[in-house]
């Protein structure tokens, strides 16, 4: 059934939005069907009032682009009339909303296609810059390692490269912000990851975080692309289309496809949650669809040497000097809690005289940004004294003769095999030894242990400090001694400062 409808299209200048600098007002059109109307801007056309013929509804010849503008207006009128006719033929009744939706849909598809291309280009620029920045960071750290001063020519080259990267980063950030700040731009998962990387990159450039942390974050980026291709057959997905179940799907994907431990796989979900959390804080999304997903981490069965085994290791003489040196490094790490990076970067400048007049060692930890300062125990001082005149230490200005990480781990394996240890010797097990056998077993408060290990959060330290059965047994023995008398009777003791202090003896009848 054909229904006759009144269709009209009126073009006009919206003078209330006149640009004060240019004096131009945007051109609008009003689409009216049977009295119902909608107003829209004609994109790309802004005119001075004298350049618009309000009777003929055309741009005058005073405007240099009048021919192109008039053609655009004519095409717009033709397209809207065509969509009106098509909707009437299909639905019998047409509304302004239906006509505009039909007209704008192909335009939106073209816009999204262009956005996708620009997102991909930005992502490649981010990857390229981070690659070159990390290469530069490695060169910079090598040149300045252990307090060394680069040669003048090398220093000049490094500083020039640093300046170039700084300028490039500002251009990258500026171009990226044009996309990030565009409210009409469809925000996607991969765009959110690039936004987080750029934000963290700025913190690294400011010297507040380590380049190695940026490298870890960036290294996870490709995994998200692989996951989206595997699960959804796409390279990217709009954030508003993401559902809660994606978090569990990502976790399962990492565990099943890459044989990852759950704790490691969970870190990918945690980073993605951070991306969505930021999307809310910067106004991309109204809510975080992944917020309800709880990232839990299983308590790992960490192991470390007993104090008896450590003493036996310290006193053992290996047939190869290399193993003896690596043994000393491991013992030093075990009584200081230092990682391989801290060991390799420790210099004479890290020495301090503590408040007790004894030797302390200080190191600003890059990972947490916290200041880790601790007094050295005699066993650690003994090892430092042993290597103070070592040629390698003098040449590299280090406190200890640190080999490469690969050589260090290889020798630790040989040492463990020769000593018959069931526990794998690593810098991580050395830190566990410090947290438990050195600190916790000897009654050190958890907050002090956290400070010595360079932890900002007590929760991190609690991850290191494990239940010690021998310590539990000793504490329960103290409880038993306080509860029971010498004759084995249970005694309830009232505090001595009570005016009516007395001991109530309970006999247990067996």
From TrEMBL:
It comes from the Bacteria. The keyword Electron transport does not apply. One of its GO terms (biological process) is DNA recombination. Residues 300-477 form the Tyr recombinase domain. It holds the Pfam family Phage_integrase. CDD domains: INTN1_C_like. One of its GO terms (molecular function) is DNA binding. Keywords: DNA recombination. This is Tyr recombinase domain-containing protein.
């Amino acid at each position: 059934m054909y229904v006759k409808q009144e269709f009209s299209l009126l073009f006009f200048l919206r003078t209330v939005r006149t640009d004060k600098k240019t004096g131009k007002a945007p051109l609008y059109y009003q689409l009216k069907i049977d009295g119902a109307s909608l107003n829209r801007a004609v994109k790309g056309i802004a005119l001075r009032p004298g350049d618009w013929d309000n009777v003929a509804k055309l741009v005058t010849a005073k405007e240099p682009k009048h021919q192109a503008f008039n053609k655009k207006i004519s095409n717009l009128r033709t397209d809207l009339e065509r969509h009106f006719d098509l909707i009437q033929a299909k639905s019998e009744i047409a509304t302004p909303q239906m006509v505009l939706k039909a007209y704008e849909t192909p335009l939106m598809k073209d816009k999204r296609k262009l956005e996708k291309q620009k997102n991909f280009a930005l992502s490649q620029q981010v990857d390229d810059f981070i690659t070159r920045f990390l290469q530069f960071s490695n060169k910079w750290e090598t040149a300045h390692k252990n307090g060394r001063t680069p040669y003048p020519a090398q220093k000049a080259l490094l500083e020039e490269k640093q300046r170039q990267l700084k300028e490039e980063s500002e251009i990258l950030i500026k171009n990226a912000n044009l996309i990030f700040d565009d409210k009409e731009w469809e925000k996607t998962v991969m765009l959110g990851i690039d936004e987080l990387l750029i934000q963290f990159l700025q913190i690294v450039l400011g010297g507040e975080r380590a380049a190695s942390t940026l490298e870890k974050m960036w290294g996870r980026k490709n995994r998200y692309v692989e996951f989206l291709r595997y699960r959804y057959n796409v390279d990217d997905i709009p954030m508003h289309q993401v559902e809660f179940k994606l978090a569990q799907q990502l976790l399962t994907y990492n565990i099943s496809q890459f044989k990852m431990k759950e704790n490691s796989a969970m870190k990918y979900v945690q980073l993605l949650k951070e991306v969505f959390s930021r999307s809310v804080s910067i106004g991309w999304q109204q809510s975080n669809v992944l917020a309800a997903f709880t990232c839990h981490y299983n308590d790992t069965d960490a192991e470390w040497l007993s104090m008896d085994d450590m003493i036996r290791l310290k006193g053992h003489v290996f047939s190869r000097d290399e193993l003896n040196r690596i043994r000393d490094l491991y013992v030093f790490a075990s009584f200081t809690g230092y990682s391989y990076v801290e060991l390799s970067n420790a210099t004479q400048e890290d020495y301090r005289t503590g408040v007790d007049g004894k030797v302390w060692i200080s190191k600003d930890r890059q990972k947490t940004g916290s200041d880790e300062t601790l007094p050295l125990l005699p066993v650690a001082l003994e090892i430092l004294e042993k290597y103070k005149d070592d040629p390698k230490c003098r040449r590299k200005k280090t406190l200890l003769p640190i080999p490469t990480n690969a050589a260090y781990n290889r020798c630790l394996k040989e040492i463990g095999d020769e000593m018959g240890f069931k526990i794998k010797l690593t810098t991580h097990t050395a830190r566990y030894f410090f947290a438990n056998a050195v600190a916790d077993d000897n009654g050190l408060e958890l907050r002090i242990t956290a400070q010595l290990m360079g932890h900002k959060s007590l929760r991190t330290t609690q991850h290191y400090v494990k239940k010690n059965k021998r310590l539990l047994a000793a504490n329960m023995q103290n409880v038993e001694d306080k509860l029971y008398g010498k004759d084995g009777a249970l005694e309830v003791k009232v505090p001595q400062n009570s005016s009516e202090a007395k001991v109530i003896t309970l006999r247990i009848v067996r």
